[in-house]
Structures are given as structure tokens and as C-alpha cells.
Design a protein that fits this description.
CATH superfamily: DsrEFH-like
Protein name: Putative repeat protein (TIGR04044 family)
Strand order of the largest sheet: 4-3-2-1-5
Structural class: alpha/beta
Number of helices: 4
Strand content: 15-25%
InterPro entries: DsrEFH-like, MSMEG0572
Organism: Primorskyibacter sedentarius
Radius of gyration: 19 Å
Oligomer: single chain
Helix content: 25-40%
CATH architecture: 3-Layer(aba) Sandwich
Length: 160
């Protein structure tokens, strides 16, 4: 059996060149919009958190950015905690809430479908994080179409 002679990795080491950026840093032109849609279940994959972070980044690049939570995506926008709402039951438990609040505090808008909220997941509007705007199920498509008409950057996220 071959002997491993390399030193063990330690904190501070890196495996890739994280400083090199290949593409220019794109900024929004005046009035440009972005929409990030979520049809994903909270805590069942990384895409929910990753695309909230993408929405924050789009907003910081100057895009008028909105998040659309529909279907299971509404589970990203509900208040949670244990033993009481707002408590962090485990590290990262409040990642969605913390980052959605940050997004909204920086000027982003978050919409949540009322149908999915009540009919699919048994929650009412008071379950949403403060600042999230509940919308009718018919508004889901119109939100997407209005952004499309505005030539917005649209990131659609689906998980099954």
C-alpha cells in the first residue's frame, strides 16, 4: 500500500484560486429588474438559501429585485423556531428568515402565494415573515409575465 507523505490540510489552506474572477462584474442599468422564483421546500436542499443569496446579490448590483414564493416555496417565508418562534433550534435553522429579512431591508420585495400558504401547507398570512406580501394564486403567473415584459433577469427555481 502506498504511503501518504503529504501534510494534513489545516485551517487557512485553500484548494482553488478564489481570487481570480473570469467575468466582468455586471451592474444593472437604470430601471432593470430581476425576479427569483422559488418552487422548493425549505430544508430539503440548498437551492432555497443559494437563490435568496443570489437575490440579495442581484439587488446589490442595482436590479429592482423581487422574490416569488409559490407552491412549496412559501415554506421559505414562514416564521419558525423552537421552542418559540424566532428561536434557532439548530445552527442554520433561521437562515431563510435572516436572509429574507436582510433582502427586504435592502429594498427587495418578497411575494408569497396565498393558495400554497393555506391550501397546501395549512398556514395563514400571519405565519409569514413580516414584510412578505401575500398574493392571489392568479398573481403568480402575472408576476412572472410582468417581469418578462420588463425584460427582467428571471431565475426560476424548481425542485421535485
Amino acid at each position: 500500500m502506498p504511503e501518504v507523505t503529504k501534510e494534513m490540510h489545516k485551517d487557512g489552506d485553500f484548494f482553488v484560486n478564489y481570487e481570480e474572477k473570469v467575468f466582468e462584474d455586471v451592474k444593472a442599468d437604470e430601471g432593470e429588474k430581476a425576479l427569483v422564483t422559488f418552487h422548493t421546500v425549505a430544508f430539503e436542499g440548498s437551492i432555497g438559501l443559494v437563490n435568496i443569496l443570489n437575490a440579495i446579490r442581484l439587488n446589490r448590483k442595482g436590479y429592482e429585485t423581487s422574490i416569488l414564493l409559490y407552491g412549496p416555496g412559501v415554506t421559505l417565508g414562514i416564521q419558525r423556531g423552537f421552542p418559540t418562534l424566532g428561536d434557532e433550534a439548530f445552527p442554520g435553522h433561521q437562515n431563510f428568515a435572516v436572509n429574507l429579512k436582510k433582502f427586504m431591508s435592502e429594498g427587495g420585495t418578497v411575494y408569497a402565494c396565498r393558495f400554497a400558504l393555506q391550501a397546501l401547507y395549512g398556514h395563514g398570512e400571519p405565519s409569514l415573515l413580516p414584510g412578505i406580501i401575500p398574493i392571489a394564486p392568479q398573481d403568480v403567473l402575472d408576476c412572472i409575465l410582468l417581469h418578462k415584459k420588463a425584460n427582467a433577469v428571471i431565475l426560476d427555481t424548481w425542485t421535485v
